[in-house]
Amino acid sequence: MIEATQNKTEFWSQHFAAAKKFNGSRQSYCDTHGLKLATFYQWKKKIEGIARPRKRPAFLPAIIQESCPGVKNRALPDARWVAEVMAHLILVTR
Predict the structure, then answer these.
(1) Which of 17, 32, 46, 71 lies in the 20 to 30 Å Cα band around 54?
(2) pLDDT tens for residues 12-71?
(3) Closest CA to 9 of 54, 17, 36, 28
(4) Residue 38: in which H helix or E strand, if any?
(5) What is the CA radius of gyration of the chain?
């Protein structure tokens, strides 16, 4: 399975490089090479996603300092619970 994915990645990477040098639209390039434009862009997005990792994490850590008044238990609620509450609030306010 990994080998097949590597072959597809190579295949599409070569097409992306050739498409950059092509003197027509992406649609023309795909038509000339028997490729579907939607598949071309799906693989482009997939490969670029692999090449460019996310710049920041989905959740940032929360730091509670000793000087926070009224905070006795320093444990924060589970992130999934917080996300569910936020999603609910967004739906309610629409």
Answers:
(1) 17
(2) 999 999 999 999 999 999 999 999 999 999 999 888 877 666 666 667 677 666 655 665
(3) 17
(4) helix 37-51
(5) 23
Query: Is the CB of residue 9 less than 8 Å from the CB of residue 47?
Result: yes
Q: What's the residue count for the chain? A: 94
pLDDT band at 86; cut points 50, 70, 90: confident
26 neighbors 37 (Cβ within 8 angstroms): yes
Per the domain annotation, does 9 fall within a domain?
yes
Closest by CA to 76, choosing from 89, 68, 67, 64, is 64
Domain assignment present for residue 19? The answer is yes
7-16 pLDDT, tens digit each: 888 999 999 9
Instruction: Give the residue from 45, 55, 61, 52 showing the smallest Cα distance to 9.
Output: 45
Whose tokens are 């926070």? That residue is 68
Q: What is the pLDDT of residue 51?
A: 64
